[in-house]
Protein 1
Amino acid sequence: MRLRASHMLTENKGFGTKFETWGTPESPANADFELPYPDFFNMSLGFRHDTPAASPYGYTIKFAPKSRPQGELINMSLINGKTKGAAWFVSHCATNSKRELYVKELKAASTVNVKESFPVDIYGGCGHLKCARGGACESMLDKE
């Protein structure tokens, strides 16, 4: 994300209720930008759930300051009857967090111990599977 219309920025006078937000859908490790106005923004919008304004991929949810999850942590009705372990949508194959190694271990464990199987289907630039938005693939994910 790059700011292209810097003349449209107003000076933040610190009125207490105005938030100038900077947001990017990328992890800082994958973001290719320099923040052009370091003293202008007073809030960040990020994909992590612990940011002041969380915006996970695909949607934004506003939480109350001290909200807590209610109910079951895992909704078993969504899991029962599934035939697959996980679907991973990924475009950055090699990461600083090494998440790809974790998935590799999950997949390896699935081939060694079929009784404790946890298959991982990889979609996108790092896998061989493709899934069009809004298509039959999405309904397959809901079912399997």
Protein 2
Amino acid sequence: MSKIVAIGGYTSKNGNTSMESLPIDREIVRLTGKKHPRALFMGTATEDHPKYRAWFEEMYGKKLQCATDTLNLYKKNIRKNRSLTKFFQQILFMWAVVIPSR
């Protein structure tokens, strides 16, 4: 059975990213049942701001040992930083996390 966990609100009360959510993040990784699950960051609330992407990489990539990727959804970022090929690869990556392999 597949599990999808969607969460938001990764800033502390003073607006900074923090490690406050570490217990929740560990539980999310545990729910996958995998040692190195895949995690996808979609920073829509922050317009794909690099600060939050960096935090996600630190938390999920380094600390929780997930294979991470980022799906930028704002056209200015896709045009400026990503090719359409990379954009579609990210979408496929996202679906690979959702659809179980048989």
Protein 3
Amino acid sequence: RQSLPASVACLPFLVLRFLTLTVDPFRWGGSPADLPLLLVGAVFAASMLQAVTGIGFGVIAGPVLIVTMANAGAIQASILLSLLIALLLSPSTIPRVNRRLLAPLFLGVCIGTPIGALAFLTLTISSLKLCAAVIVGFMTLVAAGVLSRFPIFENDTRIRRVGIGVVSGILNAALAMPGPAVAAYATAIKSDKSTIQATTLVTFLLAYPVAFAFQAVFVGISNEALEISMKLVLPTLSGTVLGASVARFVPERLFKSVTVLFLIMSVLLLVSA
């Protein structure tokens, strides 16, 4: 078994320490009891399911955050909490990640992020959601095997991995949604559930800091996003720990069915929100 560098293993604790130092819990009253029960429950459930499948946080918690905050800070809060989940799980996901798949994906993310940033600054939010719905919808068909009669959609090549990374980078910068493209591709090429979950979550480790930096430069960091993120640390931690505990008991077939279900929910959310 591959051992993990101490610096990587300490990442979750460093992030929690950073949150403690940069966000004043006494000023903001960092307790989930101050927030709507629906939001706390949604974040707990979303954290649990993201720990199991690698995606799902934005689908479940995203809409509730948007309704609760009603501003761009909802995207920033979603980025912070999703990154926290990925960091908490990094000691177990990094050793299991498919590095052959990850390297081209990250190259694609770096290429796609400026394109997504340009789209974010020039297109309306409705246009962004429509474009994302078409892209994720197509990839959902591929992941579900609907297009399996055409082997080209299930072939794994370096060029295709870079291409998926570009799509992930575009969606990451434009809508803070890097996960669906990676999960759909990993499912389509028939990766096992451990590889899908690990590769998706480690992609988050690389993509979300880029998305947050983009938000900081072009939008500005919302104090409300930091406040709500701090208050939601506890339900996020609880859901992540529970999800990581039950993930090993989820059968392969059920895992892939749940992944496709979340991809479908992502498309519906993009179309209806």
Protein 4
Amino acid sequence: MFLKNKGFTIVELLIASLITIITVGISVEVYLAAKKDFTLNELELKTLASANETQVALSSAIVNAGFNSKYGLFSWHDIENITEDSVPEFGHENNRIMPRIYIETVGDSISNSILPENAVAGTDYILLQGSNIESTLTDNTLSGSNELGVSNDFASQLAANDYVIIGSAIAYTLGRVSSIADGKITLTNNLKWSVYSGDYIGRYQPTVYYIGNSSDPDGELRVDENGQQINSLFSFSKNNNSTQQLEIIDNISNMQITLHKLGTGNADSDWKEPSVFDTDEVRYRKNLFNQIDAMRIQLTINGENSNIVIRLKD
């Protein structure tokens, strides 16, 4: 009688090894598939989060653009510039699509004098008028005069050559500060309209939102894993001196802006570029402002196209 070998035969070992290899292979495939799905989901979530952050940032800025004056927004004409200065960051009337909101494409002569060097040509930018310090006048000042009564606190935060916005029942006026004394500021030019105690005054500071090249702390341009330039959404505020641009969200590019009119549909053809509006509508802007009810901002976020719609009317 033959005794059975207590070990495994060669055939049994080969079969066991084959089963192990197949099992490990399946596990690796499952892991790689799960990892791929996780990577895609992570990218989708990041893109969604970036889109939400971008919408919140731009919506808040656009809706709150302007000046906190008791007279509200003047939509009939632009703010009157009495400084005789060429103030590019004040915005160009032909680019104004809503009170205090301007849209233009990077690469024109106006943008070249407003934006930092990292702005990406061919993309749209938004200029929003506003003030970073606000107060009210303490005295009456007749037209033809250039001295304004203000609070000491407001005066202490101004510097010579700062631009100020004065809002009255007649108009908004852009002036430039010549000198400052206790409770008084003197403008470089005389007012064309009388202003009164309680009227609005603010230090003018527009904010521009644009697409720019992203850089690391050493100033080197950032690139992705494929060697492509990384772009970001930036904001840039300016008074009489440039301030450092702020990088808000990275991996955002190709900002293009279109507008929607009341009473039209929601097809792509119903969204118009700001430049295509009739010149008569540009001249008589009150009619134009009353018709535009929404703005669509098209962006590429983490390589994915995204549309942000901002309602301009309730």
